[in-house]
Amino acid sequence: MLSQALLRLASAVSRRRMKLLLGIALLAYVASIWGNLVNMSFLLNRSIQENGELKIESKIEEIVEPLREKIRDLEKSFTQKYPPVKFLSEKDRKRILVTGGAGFVGSHLTDKLMMDGHEVTVVDNFFTGRKRNVEHWIGHENFELINHDVVEPLYIEVDQIYHLASPASPPNYMYNPIKTLKTNTIGTLNVLGLAKRVGARLLLASTSEVYGDPEVHPQTEDYWGHVNPIGPRACYDEGKRVAETMCYAYMKQEGVEVRVARIFNTFGPRMHMNDGRVVSNFILQALQGEPLTVYGSGSQTRAFQYVSLIKAPRLLQPYHLVECSRDCALKGPSVTTRSYCFKGVRQKIHLK
Ligand SMILES: O=c1ccn([C@@H]2O[C@H](COP(=O)(O)OP(=O)(O)O[C@H]3OC[C@@H](O)[C@H](O)[C@H]3O)[C@@H](O)[C@H]2O)c(=O)[nH]1
């Protein structure tokens, strides 16, 4: 009896154990399948992710590669960024201030001085000057650009001063005659004061307009001019005349070394398209196929001066041919100051 009871008990226990073991085995099986599934989905995810990443990477590469090339080009251009500059010894290298150095004439002068190996400081208020005219020097160790109006005093240490700051074309200087007067009088006084303080030599960019409406042709330096002190051009004419007077007063009284250059009607690269002077006006009108406008009777004369470090093109002869086709019959002397040829067609010069 007892043994039977013990046997039943033992079989009951083993059945339970079996069930337990079976249960554990099932659980282990499910867990392993689950694990595999998780593993598989992880691997799948990873490969999708990797695939995606690869695609994105190749896309990025596609976009970045041309940019890299551009950067390489830029880096190359940085190394050869500046026009060639001569080496000057400490003794020969001058510290030079160019007022109005971002203007049409001033920027060519800046180029020359920089290429000669000097240290150049350009001061400009950008009324008619443009940063673009000197941008090829920005960052060069010998170059400095200061946004400053010469009507305000300037404190700087220099050996030479080229004073060109002033609007030069009639529409520009007549735009604000009082400002033109201030620039040429107070401005010149300030740079002369600076020249005196630091012992610098100064060159004033004067103008043929100091002769006013001259009665003598061509004008020689000893001609005193024929200026209307209250006429529409007086702010510039008289401004420059008093600027010259100041230079010579500083020379006589203070011993400042001065030079005066009377510049005539200039034209050349970097001249503003809307400068308003005759050469740019004519070129603009010709390029637009419009009649050229001659103010007044058309009998006035001017001496023109090409400004650039590069030689003047032969094509530009004042009041003459602007553009002409090869077989044009109007070429040469037949093209008069009263007519010009544009793309083979005779155009009339209109009198205003
Ligand atoms: O479209 C135009 C422009 C000008 N002109 C005439 O061409 C002549 C030249 O005039 P510009 O406007 O070029 O300038 P100007 O010669 O009078 O003065 C210029 O030259 C000397 C420089 O020092 C001065 O800074 C500048 O103003 C003037 O007789 C003017 O009346 C035209 O016939 N048509």
TrEMBL record:
Domain of life: Eukaryota
Membrane topology summary: Single-pass type II membrane protein
Reaction(s) catalysed by this chain's protein: UDP-alpha-D-glucuronate + H(+) = UDP-alpha-D-xylose + CO2
Record carries keyword Glycoprotein: yes
Enzyme Commission (EC) number: 4.1.1.35
Cofactor: NAD(+)
Ranges of residues in domain NAD-dependent epimerase/dehydratase: 96-307
Pfam families attached to this UniProt entry: Epimerase, UXS1_N
GO cellular component: Golgi cisterna membrane; Golgi membrane
Sequence ranges assigned to domain UDP-glucuronate decarboxylase N-terminal in this UniProt record: 6-83
Pathway the protein contributes to: Nucleotide-sugar biosynthesis; UDP-alpha-D-xylose biosynthesis; UDP-alpha-D-xylose from UDP-alpha-D-glucuronate: step 1/1
BP terms from Gene Ontology: D-xylose metabolic process; UDP-D-xylose biosynthetic process
Cited InterPro entries: Epimerase_deHydtase, NAD(P)-bd_dom_sf, UXS-like, UXS1_N
A molecular function (GO) term: NAD+ binding
Main localization category: Golgi
Nucleotide-binding is among the record's keywords: no
Cellular localization per UniProt: Golgi apparatus, Golgi stack membrane
Keyword annotations: Decarboxylase, Glycoprotein, Golgi apparatus, Lyase, Membrane, NAD, Signal-anchor, Transmembrane, Transmembrane helix
Family: Belongs to the NAD(P)-dependent epimerase/dehydratase family. UDP-glucuronic acid decarboxylase subfamily.
Function: Catalyzes the NAD-dependent decarboxylation of UDP-glucuronic acid to UDP-xylose. Necessary for the biosynthesis of the core tetrasaccharide in glycosaminoglycan biosynthesis.
Subunit structure: Homodimer and homotetramer. Interacts with AKT1.
Protein name per its UniProtKB record: UDP-glucuronic acid decarboxylase 1
